[in-house]
Amino acid sequence: MIGYFLAEGSYLKYKGEKTAVEFNFSLSKEKDTLGREVIGLLRKVFDGRNEPRIQERPNRDILMIRLYGRDVAQWFYKYCGEYSHEKELYKDCLYWHPNIQKHILATWINGDGTCRNIYHRNGKLYQNITSTTCSETLHYQMKFIASRLSIYSTTDYVGDRATKRGKKPYWTLVFGSKESQS
User: Fold this and answer.
1) What is the pLDDT at residue 25?
2) How far is Cα 122 from Cα 105, in angstroms, rounded to an integer?
């Protein structure tokens, strides 16, 4: 769930105070499955709380999931930070059990990642899994977790090209290169 929040989460505020968390997924079968997973995780972690609210916005192609509660918002703030360019894992997360870290990395990739097909000059199709963030700190933390899990990754940094277009710089982690089986 932490990985999904790092990728797709934000806060709702009332008078400047964090009062709820919100996850936004594009409407698609794949993202609908991720949305259901997030709902299940919210129910499990925050058992006994109010029920997560789900809202589809087809006009904006978005599935929104909200869970209200200042304590819920503070929990996510502690473990994930705030704002896309400032999100980061709480330092203790870097030393959690590898199985927990694997879940954090996988859910972050599920939220902000994609699979790229690349044709090599030898004519073979290769696939890379990538995930992108505007947070330099989060980038290095995810790279560290991947290395702890023996997952090879490289970095593609887009700085000047992004800022020239009025966008924030971003870091893309590229995980492995696998020859396609098809």
Assistant:
1) 86
2) 32
